[in-house]
Amino acid sequence: MCLMQAGLWAATQVSMDHPPTGFELGTLAGPAFARLRRSLGLAEEDYQAALGPGRPYLQFLSTSKSKASFFLSHDQRFFLKTLRSREVQALLTHLPRYVHHLQRHPHSLLARLLGVHSLRVARGKKVGEAEPSGPGRRGRRKGETLSPLTPYSCPQKYFIVMQSVFYPAGRISERYDIKGCEVSRWVEPAPEGSLLVLVLKDLNFQGKTINLGPQRSWFLRQMELDTAFLRELNVLDYSLLMAFQRLHEDERGPGSSLIFRTARSIRGAQSAEESGAQNRRLLPDAPNALHIVDGPEHRYFLGLVDLTTVYGLRKRLEQLWKTLRYPGRTFSTVSPACYARRLCQWAEAHTE
Asked: Which of 9, 201, 241, 249 could link 52 by a cystine bridge, Cβ 3.0 to 4.6 Å?
């Protein structure tokens, strides 16, 4: 993890007099992501500092069945996840349309992607140790010594950096990952009094609702807009992340910050008609406002994540297998149209 952190930090630097050794690193679609960060008001210095080696990343213990690794920056503002090469390819292919969608709908629930970086850690041998002979390898020549950081073949890692939906996390009491189905959608809750933070799933949410009050109509409309966009990209298996935080008395209602909230909410809109077409809302006066919706009594952290799974041959075969394996039950691998419709229906049924 230390090499990963040093590598990602180095990858964000524009220029370095003494680049670190021990790995190859890169930044993919750098100019496009830099523009995205600027549009969010994120200074490059803040982005680099959060990914920097000053303080260690926090490893995130996910209940996901994927083999991805998850991390949080030390301030928990940014979320990092490893990606497969095919996921990176899908993301970069869809990036121009993703940017365009955020321009059309500035208050979208889609996770704000901040950067994609590659990292290949070098492998080395102790000085004086011979490299074994064999197909594709060579023995050490007489008198030859190997540097401890001599690079050999090593799988390349890809990491995506995004704005964390669950930020700031200090008062969050419950966290959920919702896909709108039932197979493999239960997590055993942590024992009472445990310090373990778990992200629960659909079946854990049974019998509960989200009380958004007047914000409900905005939320349902935005879910329709965002899932329709993902359907057009032929994407499925994304999640609605959701967390709860009880509001204090002085946080309920618009309060004295109404003018400020109105100004930041309509920034960039040319007219009231354009603001309505973009489905804008009154943003809260809080960090990470794009992912926060305040109801009458609770603050909700909401965002759509995992936007890189394409409905190709692999997923079609998986759908066929699950249809035979789980007759009459709902599972995540369905067509993008069905997936989008089902998640919107879940949102409508569980909000008030």
From this structure: 9
What whole-number distance in Å separates Cα of residue 58 and Cα of residue 79? 10
Nearby residues of 221 by Cβ (< 8 Å), 6 or more positions away = 279
Distances (CA, A) of 333 to 328, 337, 340: 14, 11, 12
Name residue 84's amino acid.
Answer: R
- Per-residue model confidence as pLDDT tens for the chain (352 residues): 454 566 555 555 544 445 455 667 788 999 999 999 999 999 998 888 877 776 677 766 666 666 788 888 888 899 999 999 999 999 999 999 999 999 999 999 999 999 998 887 665 433 333 334 444 443 443 333 333 434 444 668 898 999 999 999 989 999 999 999 999 999 999 888 888 888 999 999 999 999 999 999 999 999 999 999 999 999 999 999 999 999 988 887 655 454 445 555 556 555 656 667 899 999 998 899 999 999 999 999 999 999 999 999 999 999 999 999 999 999 999 999 999 999 999 999 999 9
CA distances to 176, 218, 244, 246 from 299, rounded to whole Å, are 14, 15, 6, 6
Q: Which residues of 235-258 are buried (b: 16+ CB within 10 A; e: fewer)?
A: bbbbbbbbbbbeeeeeeeeeeeee
Whole-Å CA distances, 230 to 16, 215, 308, 311, 329: 38, 23, 10, 11, 24
Residue 159 CA to residue 4 CA, distance in Å, equals: 9
Q: State pTM to two decimals.
A: 0.83
Measure the CA dihedral 64/111/253/276, to 10°: -140
Cα–Cα distance, 110 to 108 (Å, whole number) = 5
